């Protein structure tokens, strides 16, 4: 009788798992969103949290450590990545006391109510125009990690720095991608350190930017995940039917060439502009909807790339809202999934704060997945019942 009761207990634990993991997960599933705020017309942080919950978005990345945002996310259960912006990199590199001060002001007081699961140190520093930040970036990362260790948070908060495509000397074909030689004096110690602490390599991958740079030679269907003949990498015969996968595998190829085969590649930013300047070919609401819907569907499948088929891709979409005060090309202000009032910009299968006039014919991928989980759950419960009845009969 005792073994049968043990079996029953195990079944019940499988059917009704405990709420949440013991250790904070840095990224749940495969899909997240960047919450940029260079705008004067977007909802308040508390409304944004409500919006994220309705849209079932569980991973969010911001570009600073604004306390109003950290307060709004308290108790939300949403995984939040905060940032040390580029202008603070030199301060963080100066000594460990500066990084400790930052952690004590922006991280420690908010845990565990606000689920801060990651910290980015700078954004697109290497390969950027300000070369005076190259060496400080490496020192800043190490000092922030030392601070996390002092607070016993190094196993709960992931540390990384996102890179742009500018760190690569070439990216086509994907297998030929390597890091720029002039960046290796800074990239190598950075990768050595991230390999030691187990951090992924984060890249900002934008098929949109690649397409507008050469619209005459790049098939827009290849950039948008639409049916196309794709490309075959001549070095390994791998077939790519979309540019996003090719960009991810290019990053893997660069890591392999540099000697970091075991490092995971994640995407810190990707998206498609719904509008832009006249010379920004392909910037339209229809293309933005197509790209983001197909990308979301691709990420929810939790599949890998042609080069790494067993390693599911994880990505943060750019961005939650259009940012009307952002400088630069017109497209920079038109990446938002949602309008300022919380309605969806276009239908990719998520809900907004208000009903939208956009077509609602798209089936929610998460609802499909949830249905499958419910069936599996109740199958487990029924199995427990059969075992329990069998124990009573015998």
UniProtKB/TrEMBL annotation:
Stored InterPro entries: GH, Glyco_hydro_17, Glyco_hydro_17_plant
EC numbers: 3.2.1.39
Molecular functions (GO terms): glucan endo-1,3-beta-D-glucosidase activity
Name of the protein this chain belongs to: glucan endo-1,3-beta-D-glucosidase
A Pfam family hit: Glyco_hydro_17
Catalytic activity field: Hydrolysis of (1->3)-beta-D-glucosidic linkages in (1->3)-beta-D-glucans
Iron-sulfur listed as a keyword: no
Organism of origin: Zea mays (Maize)
Protein keywords: Glycosidase, Hydrolase, Signal
Family to which this protein belongs: Belongs to the glycosyl hydrolase 17 family.
Signal peptide: 1-26
Top-level lineage group: Eukaryota
Any single GO BP term: carbohydrate metabolic process
């Amino acid at each position: 009788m005792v073994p049968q009761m043990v079996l029953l207990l195990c079944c019940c634990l499988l059917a009704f798992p405990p709420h949440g993991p013991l250790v904070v997960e840095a990224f749940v599933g495969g899909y997240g969103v960047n919450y940029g705020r260079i705008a004067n017309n977007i909802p308040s942080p508390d409304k944004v949290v409500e919006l994220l919950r309705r849209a079932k978005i569980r991973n969010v990345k911001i570009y600073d450590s604004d306390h109003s945002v950290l307060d709004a996310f308290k108790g939300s259960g949403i995984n939040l990545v905060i940032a040390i912006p580029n202008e603070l990199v030199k301060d963080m590199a100066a000594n460990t006391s500066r990084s400790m001060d930052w952690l004590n002001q922006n991280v420690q007081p908010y845990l565990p109510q606000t689920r801060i699961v990651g910290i980015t140190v700078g954004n697109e520093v290497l390969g950027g125009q300000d070369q005076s930040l190259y060496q400080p970036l490496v020192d800043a990362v190490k000092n922030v990690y030392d601070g996390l260790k002092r607070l016993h948070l190094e196993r709960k908060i992931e540390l990384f720095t996102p890179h742009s495509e500018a760190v690569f000397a070439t990216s086509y074909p994907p297998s030929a991608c390597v890091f720029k030689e002039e960046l290796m004096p800074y990239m190598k110690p950075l990768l050595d350190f991230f390999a030691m602490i187990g951090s992924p390599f984060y890249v900002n991958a934008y098929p949109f930017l690649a397409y507008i740079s050469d619209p005459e030679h790049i098939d827009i269907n290849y950039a948008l995940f639409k049916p196309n003949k794709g490309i075959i990498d001549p070095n390994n015969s791998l077939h790519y039917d979309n540019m996003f996968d090719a960009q991810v595998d290019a990053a893997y190829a660069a890591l392999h060439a540099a000697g970091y085969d075991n490092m995971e590649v994640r995407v810190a930013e990707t998206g498609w502009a719904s509008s832009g300047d006249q010379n920004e070919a392909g910037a339209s609401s229809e293309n933005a909807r197509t790209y983001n819907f197909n990308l979301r569907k691709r990420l929810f499948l939790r599949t890998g790339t042609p080069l790494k088929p067993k390693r599911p891709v994880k990505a943060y979409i750019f961005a939650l809202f259009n940012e009307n005060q952002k400088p630069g090309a017109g497209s920079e202000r038109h990446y938002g999934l949602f309008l300022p009032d919380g309605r969806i910009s276009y239908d990719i299968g998520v809900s907004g704060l208000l009903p939208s006039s956009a077509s609602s014919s798209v089936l929610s991928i998460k609802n499909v997945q949830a249905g499958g989980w419910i069936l599996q759950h109740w199958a487990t419960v029924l199995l427990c019942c059969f075992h329990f009845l069998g124990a009573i009969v015998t």
